[in-house]
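the two lines:
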Amino acid sequence: MLGKAVSYELIWDFTVSGTVDERQRWILSAMQSHGQELVTMLWRILGNEQDVCDTYQNTFLQLAHYKGRQKPEHVKAYIFRVASNAAVSMLKHRVAEKKRLSSAIVTRKGAVSPANELDSKYLQETLRCHIAQLPGHLRNVIMLRDLAELSYAQVSRILNISAATARVYRCKAIQLLAVWMGKEREEREW
Amino acid sequence: MVSINKNKGTTFRCRSQNGSSNKCRQIRVWLHKAINSRLGLDADWVQNHIANCSRCRRRFVNVGQVNLALSGMKSQPHKLDLLMRANTQAIGALKHSLRRAPKAQKLRVMLPEPKLFERCSKYTHSVTNVAACIAILLLMKIGIFSSMDKFQTKGQKVVEQYYASQVGEDLADEVFSRRVQIFIRG
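prediction for all of em together
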């Protein structure tokens, strides 16, 4: 009798887990439909393949555990926001690590020559550092509009702002980044 | 887009609204063009000012650097299997049953694919060429068929005149009236 009860319980568990899995299949669908765009954005933000894979994994883990394994209302918006936040914190961590190794940075600063001005990789790394320092609302727009190449309509939907506001934020972000890039160039020249 | 409405006033209002929105759009485009030509970076006075003002020149260079870095970030390609690896890693952290789903197997070997628009963009030239050829052929065909009747009647008149001058009008009339009768019967 007891054995039968245990086996019934097992069957019940199996069916319950099966239904839960059926309900969570949308995670794989989300991965299929938005994965490519997400990887492209993360690659542009981070520029490192291992970091991209880690952030991608964290994003989908968070999605799987969203509010008791429920499906968010706007999956795309949720994924992009989580991924960009995770990428920025990773970027900030990287910048802090670089600053910690100050001696190496000093030697690097000394080695910067006018030829480096045209060094694309150096420019990209500098811009990444500055993007990480931008205020959140400006940074989100730059990431979604320029790095994920989403339209202003999509950006506005994800960030819950109007398209015109997104345009203004992008303009401000570019101005701020330009000022910071200029300052750094001047410092290097001195 | 004019709504069909029994109430003429409403139809008129819709039409007038539509007209004003079109006008509005035209004015907006015109304004955009005008502002761009006068205030855009390519405007002469802006270029002259940048050449003479060191502050603006510096700002211009800085913005250019940001745009350069952004385009560099966008154009740097990643390895082809990055999506595959990222998917594999992410699926590995999910529940066992999700990991064994057939969709998960597909995602593990998924490669980045260009979007439909990008895929079709390489065929745009050939498609436009084919469309142009088809349009020319259609126009030619229409032109030939419409002028065929004219050619026929004119040719008949010429031959009739020739016969009239060579054999005489009576005989020519007889021949051509008979031909016309045969043609009508046929």
